[in-house]
Amino acid sequence: MINKRVADADEAIRDIIDGQTIMLGGFGLCGIPEKCIAALVKKGVKELTCISNNAGVDDFGIGLLLKTRQVKKMVSSYVGENAEFERQLLSGELEVELIPQGTLATRCMAAGYGMPVIYTPAGVGTEVAEGKETRNFNGKDYLMEYAFEADFAIVKAWKGDTAGNLVFRSTSRNFNPVMAMAGKITIAEVEELVEPGELDPDHIHTPGVYVHRIFQGSAYEKRIEQRTVRPRN
């Protein structure tokens, strides 16, 4: 069985270069690949196209890459928690493609399944449909959307083994499994890395066949984007 373990985030992203397209898992700040994002910031790679549900916040997640002007284009669904993102968008410094959330997930899935396109009713008759092919099936219009083409997919899991099998925990599962399938090269960072055979096969969410590199991170911050609690009595 192939051992896909690498030493750390720096080694995992070693061949990411300027101008490439990268998928980054997570939803809000939940399940984001914190260590790989930090390594990309340190490396200083630029002109990136980032496919992610959201753009982090000003001082965490993809927001760190925006702060250092390493992102050329964001392909996202929700981007409302980042003031620097807003500034770059309104000033014309950042290209942005906003996509309905289900379409974003399905275009990732299509890439993993080897499907060139999908058809979806989401966005028909709106600005999302401008310049896109529309087809009618059984009396209903659908947009044709292309599967994503990403040079790398970077995901974060709770547990993994050195063969690349991944287990995600609770809400952090989000976009990570579909993105793990979709990258030409998939990098996984995990909180706990074990040997093959130690994970229950019934609990594996992403089979190791999709993963090319894996490493164990430490001291994850796991920041909460919006904390809402009930007032104390």
UniProtKB/TrEMBL annotation:
Keywords in alphabetical order: Transferase
Cleaved signal peptide residues: none
Keyword match Transferase: yes
Keyword match Phosphoprotein: no
GO molecular function, one term: CoA-transferase activity
Highest taxon of source: Bacteria
Pfam families: CoA_trans (PF01144)
The family this protein is said to belong to: Belongs to the 3-oxoacid CoA-transferase subunit A family.
Protein known as: Succinyl-CoA:3-ketoacid-CoA transferase
